[in-house]
UniProtKB/TrEMBL annotation:
InterPro entries assigned: 4Fe4S_Fe-S-bd
Name by which UniProt lists this protein: 4Fe-4S ferredoxin-type domain-containing protein
Residues covered by the 4Fe-4S ferredoxin-type domain: 2-32
Pfam families per the UniProt record, alphabetical: Fer4_15
Length: 83
């Protein structure tokens, strides 16, 4: 299954991802003012979300628009499709 990953450790909270993929990213204003990958599971600094193929496009746009390259979209085979 394709995945989106977000490295919170690298995020600067610029908010670009929330414009590209508003249903997937939000800025966590209550906590660290960094992006949060909605519905994800967290492992250390990394947030991980399984997605369907039809969800890939907006997340690839978000990944490409991230100035810190801390969002990645991975295909079924683990190949990076967007960062
Ligand atoms: S675009 Fe990147 S650096 Fe900016 S808030 Fe989103 S994940 Fe963080």
């Amino acid at each position: 299954m394709p995945k989106v990953t977000h490295d919170k450790g690298e995020c600067i909270g610029c908010g670009s991802c929330t414009l590209y993929a508003e249903h997937y990213f939000e800025i966590d204003k209550e906590d660290d003012a960094k992006a949060h990958l909605i519905r994800s599971t967290q492992k250390g600094n990394m947030e991980i979300l399984d997605i369907e193929d039809f969800e890939m496009e907006v997340n690839i746009d978000a990944a490409r628009g991230c100035p810190m390259s801390c969002i990645k979209v991975l295909g079924d085979d683990g190949r990076i499709l967007g960062e």
